[in-house]
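User: Please fill in residues for this 419-position structure.
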């Protein structure tokens, strides 16, 4: 089928948006050299704004090419559940009581390991928290892990190599760590019901392999940087205990679990989220600043990806259809780096009459490549937004992130292809 004019425009704008994500430093430099329009250049230099901006350009084109009613209908018929969910879960997971609870769990687990406290905490954060993502969802796990790593390590001025190495392992481990269940990883969620991916299937075909790869990745990075980690300043054990009542933590945890349970029902979980905002205002003494701005920017990024991604089916489906299972696995891993992996598996699910090998290869490839770029997996922009201020010039270099994620990705390849 020949693509329409607007489909060609949509594919072109998608390609421009991908290139833009690799060029944000160019716009930051423009902000310094052209101060009269610094605000605009700073906006275009924000990775989280890229896809939302080019989605707006696409809609403007649609107004002129197709007319107002068609353009509005297209925007109205997109599914924005994932951006809304990521926004809500990011803000709740990053609230002070949840972070206190997560810190206690990681600290208690790390205390059981026969190694330096800082080293053990680092290893536990990069291994246990991504695997918890199979139950609390990947966006929540990403938010928790990024804040724990930020507060314990990134704020201490760790080396640039360790910053990127940690980010690469974090992104890959979150992407594969959510595959123990059929409801936590966005690319699995897209196909689970249609293809019958139940709990038993996920554990036997994906879960144990993913868990092994997560542990290998966390262990390798911890061993490589053990000396630097052990030399870092350790938090005092003699300070006053965190003044956080159990009932406050329990209430926040209830909100978190409730939003996860109703993740497919935006009217319900957004209602719960608004109730959560009211609750935090009523008990503000137990709160820090909620990350509403960061959450909204990540939601804007993902919503833009939804709008632009809807115009890619005409070429992406044909590409997937023509691949053998082995080629599909590596093709999906590569395509995920330039498209959202949930969109990739969704488009693959529209192909009828595919084999079980095709289904496994597509999903395994999608989660394997989920750590290579910021756009590869829905939770990545959340980690990006939380940690990017601790990198040089407040920006994460996409090429360095890609290189940092190659090693952990190779471990995931071995786990899903060789085991």
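Assistant: Residues filled in for all 419 positions:
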């Amino acid at each position: 089928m020949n693509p329409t004019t607007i489909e060609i425009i949509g594919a072109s704008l998608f390609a421009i948006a991908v290139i833009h994500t690799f060029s944000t430093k160019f716009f930051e430099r423009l902000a310094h050299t052209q101060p009269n329009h610094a605000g605009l250049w700073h906006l275009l230099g924000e990775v989280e704004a890229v896809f939302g901006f080019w989605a707006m350009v696409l809609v403007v084109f649609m107004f002129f090419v197709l007319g107002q009613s068609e353009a509005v209908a297209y925007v109205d018929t997109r599914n924005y559940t994932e951006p809304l969910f990521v926004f809500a879960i990011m803000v709740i997971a990053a609230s002070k009581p949840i972070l206190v609870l997560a810190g206690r769990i990681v600290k208690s687990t790390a205390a059981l390991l026969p190694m330096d406290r800082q080293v053990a905490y680092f290893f536990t954060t990069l291994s246990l928290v991504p695997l918890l993502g199979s139950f609390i969802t990947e966006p929540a796990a990403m938010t928790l892990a990024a804040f724990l790593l930020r507060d314990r390590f990134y704020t201490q001025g760790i080396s640039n190599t360790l910053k990127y190495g940690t980010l690469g392992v974090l992104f890959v481990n979150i992407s594969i760590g959510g595959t123990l269940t059929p409801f936590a990883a966005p690319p699995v969620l897209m196909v689970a019901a249609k293809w019958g991916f139940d709990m038993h299937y996920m554990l036997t075909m994906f879960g144990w392999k993913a868990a092994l790869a997560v542990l290998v990745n966390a262990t390798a990075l911890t061993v490589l940087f053990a000396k630097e980690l052990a030399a870092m300043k350790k938090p005092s054990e003699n300070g006053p205990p965190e003044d956080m009542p159990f009932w406050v933590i329990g209430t926040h945890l209830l909100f978190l679990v409730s939003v996860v349970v109703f993740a497919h029902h935006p009217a319900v979980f957004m209602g719960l989220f608004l109730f959560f905002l009211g609750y935090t205002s009523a008990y503000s003494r137990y709160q820090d600043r909620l990350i509403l701005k960061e959450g909204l920017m990540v939601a804007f990024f993902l919503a833009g990806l939804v709008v632009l991604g809807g115009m890619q089916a005409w070429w992406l489906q044909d590409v997937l259809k023509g691949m053998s299972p082995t080629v599909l696995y590596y093709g999906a891993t590569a395509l995920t780096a330039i498209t959202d992996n949930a969109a990739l598996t969704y488009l693959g699910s529209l192909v009828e009459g595919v084999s079980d090998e095709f289904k496994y290869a597509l999903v395994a490839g999608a989660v394997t490549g989920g750590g290579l770029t910021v756009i590869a997996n829905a939770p990545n922009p959340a980690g990006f937004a939380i940690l990017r201020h601790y990198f040089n010039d407040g920006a994460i270099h996409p090429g360095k992130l890609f290189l940092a994620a190659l090693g952990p990705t190779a471990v995931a390849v071995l786990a899903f292809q060789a085991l």
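For context: Residues 176 and 367 are 5 Å apart (CA to CA).
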